[in-house]
Amino acid sequence: MLKLPNDGPATGRLLSQVLAGDGPAAIVRAIAEAQPPLMERLGAGRLHGDPTEIVGVNDTGDKQKALDVGAHHHMIAVLRDAGVRQVLSEEAEAVIELNPDGDWDVAMDPIDGSGSIGIGAPLGMLFSIMPAAPEGFLRTGECVVAAGYASFGHSMDFGWSLGDGTHIAGWDAEAGEFRMVRENVTLKPAASTIAYNASNERHWARGLQAWVADLRAGRDGPLGKNYNMRWLAAAVGELHRILLNGGAFLYPADNRPGYRNGKLRLVYEAMPIAFLVEQAGGLASDGTQPIRYRKPLAVHDMTPLIFGAKDEVETILGYLAEPSKG
Fold it and tell me: Which residues bind Mg(2+) 2 per the record (predicted)?
């Protein structure tokens, strides 16, 4: 590895020391330890084959790439060994039973942002943990006790929360382990960076279109400040960036067929994001209520999602709530 003039030995506690407990902590640790093989396969690109090869279609109609399915099976084996009772995965139509006597259920998106596989853009995985219960995953986000994500970019990072704040670790290749990078991440309530897909603006509710117009007016408009725009096309990448640098993200419902109830998956994308963001002092909403209060009617239910810095999210929700603009 290239050494910069001010570089020294890697610092930060090892993740294995921080997550030394059992229960959800042990599951989070097992998920973290399962990430390096995924990062290595991403890094290999097309050297051994094509990770973007289409090998199927998932329950929500998205094309499954070879890496999607490979990551799914990889994580299922890890979670089985971790004693998890059952798993809900984006890449499987039905809930997967693993250990009938297990105490915990896990919902996951094994590869989030898979449309960017092979082009070097950030992507990763998301998960949440719930206590085992007869109703399975058809519960509100209030039941989530732990959540986390992996981010694969120029570095491999792992963020999580056990309900005691949101924390981020980075991969130390020399040690072969994650080390702590940031503990108790706190989102500033105001932000100047917003992430959304501008190509969809014309389909949005009038309130959101009014917000965008005011946003673009910058310091001279009603919002009184200039904004930067970002769009990574991977919710996990946006989550990681926002936890590190602040900002807000939105993928709202719109008027196109198939998008009127949003497009992100409630249980294994929106719920873990909401848990992590709220543990960091931010907000996560579907546009009308906090994500944590949403109860899915089906395991692959979709939802609109707005999350990030508290003041920015509240501003967006205020525009959505105006009767004359909604």
Answer: 109, 112, 269
